């Protein structure tokens, strides 16, 4: 008698684990919530909240000059080019933006892509067989994927650990072509790359340096030109990648570098060749945003001052914003302020409590950060007001007391305003902290919660795979 065939596993069922079902089927959750954000606030479930999860650092996505430029390009060129840059998707606007971005970054040439993710994927032609690529373990997922797609031998070094990188470079094949890739400003914890050391190591070992400036181009440095300007190293970076969805308030990506390398990537990078080009409206918006970035430095000053005050206020409350190791760079202030929680379920509880206080934050758990390093990520915008800052600190005060993260009597949630109401006036606690009044943190360990409230999904299971891969940051 013939053996009975083994039933085939259903590939959908295999991957739809209880984790994913729990995350998808639960009620209110930190992810995929529909909302409308503008001016440092957002409407979430019909309620106006302070928005601190958006990367619109300079507040340009809703600037009338940017939206007017987008509308003008939309009317003039249509909604889409309906073709790749290689064939029929190149407009005069694309070439204008490329020339402007190249000049802004101090590079001979640039090419724009449809998204920032694609800009990083476009470096894969530089990762050939027999080459070596060295990547910071905290690099963005798009860089991780680019390295996986390339044919080069891969080496990961511990986050911003220059001794680890130097050891790996020193023991590598001296004859191999080498590439070091790093985020300029790391998106989860808000720390800058160690550009001076990276540059020295690259030159010493004959490596090229690629910097993803997604979060620092338009923001860091006196002119907003990025980490190279911030560190006073205009010739340090061999190839820039970046996105136009942060400081530029649009969508799209950019690669900038030597003319011959940019020309090579125009004809070899699949994310450039095999996709429709950056939409005209997005190009128009980015051009207008660049005008503002170059002419209004006060926006950078504003957002960095707000971030410094928020970081100081959260520390005064007793929260950990520095992580297990100091942030890199000389007293670096960036618009990204992390609040380290550790446990993923506790992070979910804190996120929900803060939302109940009228502030929308970003709960970050594995694999975006290592297991046991969950955090609440706050992104400041130039359009945030002093009142917004006080409300954020008030929310962390009330939520932290209820969860026994900080000392003080447990506070009751502040009522959130309906969509047609103005943002509530800031209670006195946040204003007191922002003016320097300290709150003593709880020294005793935080007791594990007996259960997660029904309205908060369990984030531990769906978002922590086993075994845990190297963390990749989610923008």
Detailed description of the structure:
36% of the residues lie in helices and 14% in strands. It has two domains: 33-57 and 298-463, Aspartate Aminotransferase, domain 1 (Alpha-Beta Complex); 64-295, Aspartate Aminotransferase, domain 2 (3-Layer(aba) Sandwich). α4 (92-104) packs parallel to α12 (280-295) and α15 packs across α16. It is globular. The model is unreliable at 411-428 and 436-470 (pLDDT under 50). The protein has helices spanning 11-15, 18-25, 64-77, 92-104, 116-121, 141-149, 162-170, 195-204, 227-230, 259-268, 270-273, 280-295, 298-317, 344-356, 386-402, 428-434, 460-463, and strands spanning 35-38, 41-44, 47-51, 109-113, 132-136, 153-157, 178-183, 207-212, 239-243, 253-257, 336-342, 359-360, 362-364, 374-379. The N and C termini lie far apart (57 Å). α6 links the parallel β5 (132-136) and β6 (153-157). The strands form three sheets. A seven-stranded mixed sheet has the order 4-10-9-8-7-5-6, sandwiched between helices. It has 475 residues and is α/β, with parallel strands linked by helices.
List the helices and strands and how they pair.
Elements: H1 11-15, H2 18-25, E1 35-38, E2 41-44, E3 47-51, H3 64-77, H4 92-104, E4 109-113, H5 116-121, E5 132-136, H6 141-149, E6 153-157, H7 162-170, E7 178-183, H8 195-204, E8 207-212, H9 227-230, E9 239-243, E10 253-257, H10 259-268, H11 270-273, H12 280-295, H13 298-317, E11 336-342, H14 344-356, E12 359-360, E13 362-364, E14 374-379, H15 386-402, H16 428-434, H17 460-463
Parallel strand pairs: 3-12, 5-6, 5-7, 7-8, 8-9
Antiparallel strand pairs: 1-2, 2-3, 4-10, 9-10, 11-14, 13-14
Helix pairs in contact: 3-12, 4-12, 13-15, 14-15, 15-16
């Amino acid at each position: 008698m013939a053996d009975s065939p083994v039933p085939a596993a259903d590939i959908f069922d295999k991957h739809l684990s209880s984790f994913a079902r729990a995350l998808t089927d639960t009620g209110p959750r930190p992810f995929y919530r529909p909302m409308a954000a503008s001016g440092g606030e957002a409407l979430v479930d019909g309620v106006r909240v302070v928005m601190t999860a958006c990367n619109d650092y300079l507040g340009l996505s809703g600037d009338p000059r940017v939206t007017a430029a987008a509308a003008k390009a939309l009317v003039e060129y249509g909604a889409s080019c309906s073709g790749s840059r290689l064939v029929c998707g190149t407009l005069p606007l694309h070439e204008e933006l490329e020339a402007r971005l190249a000049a802004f970054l101090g590079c001979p040439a640039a090419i724009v892509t449809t998204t920032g993710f694609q800009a990083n994927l476009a470096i894969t032609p530089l990762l050939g067989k027999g080459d070596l690529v060295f990547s910071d373990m905290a690099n963005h997922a798009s860089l991780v994927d680019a390295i996986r797609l390339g044919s080069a031998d891969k080496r990961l070094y511990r986050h911003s650990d220059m001794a680890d990188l130097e050891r790996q470079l020193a023991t590598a094949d001296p004859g191999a072509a080498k590439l070091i890739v790093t985020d300029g400003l790391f998106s989860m914890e808000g720390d800058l790359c160690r550009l001076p050391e990276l540059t020295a190591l690259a030159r010493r070992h004959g490596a090229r340096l690629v910097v993803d400036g997604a979060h620092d181009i338009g923001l860091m440095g006196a002119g907003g030109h990025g980490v190279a300007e911030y560190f006073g190293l205009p010739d340090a970076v061999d190839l820039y990648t970046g996105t136009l969805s942060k400081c530029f308030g649009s969508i799209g990506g950019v690669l900038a570098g030597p003319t011959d390398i940019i020309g090579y990537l125009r004809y070899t990078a699949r994310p450039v060749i095999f996709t429709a080009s950056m939409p005209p409206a997005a190009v128009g918006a980015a051009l207008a945003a660049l005008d503002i970035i170059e002419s209004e430095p006060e926006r950078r000053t504003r957002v960095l001052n707000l971030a410094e005050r928020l970081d100081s206020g959260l520390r005064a409350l007793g929260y950990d914003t520095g992580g297990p190791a100091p942030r890199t760079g000389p007293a670096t202030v960036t618009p990204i302020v992390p609040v380290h929680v550790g446990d993923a379920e506790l992070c979910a509880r804190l996120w929900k409590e803060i939302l109940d206080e009228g502030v929308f934050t970003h709960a970050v758990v594995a694999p975006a950060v290592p297991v046991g390093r969950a955090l609440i990520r706050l992104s400041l915008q130039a359009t945030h007001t002093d009142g917004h800052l006080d409300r954020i600190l008030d929310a962390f005060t009330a939520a932290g007391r209820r969860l026994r993260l900080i000392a003080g009597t447990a506070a009751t949630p502040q009522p959130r305003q309906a969509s047609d109401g103005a943002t509530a006036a800031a209670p006195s606690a946040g204003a007191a902290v922002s003016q320097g009044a300290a709150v003593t943190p709880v020294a005793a360990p935080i007791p594990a919660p007996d259960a997660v409230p029904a309205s908060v999904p369990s984030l531990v299971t769906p978002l922590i795979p086993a075994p845990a891969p190297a963390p990749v940051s989610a923008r």
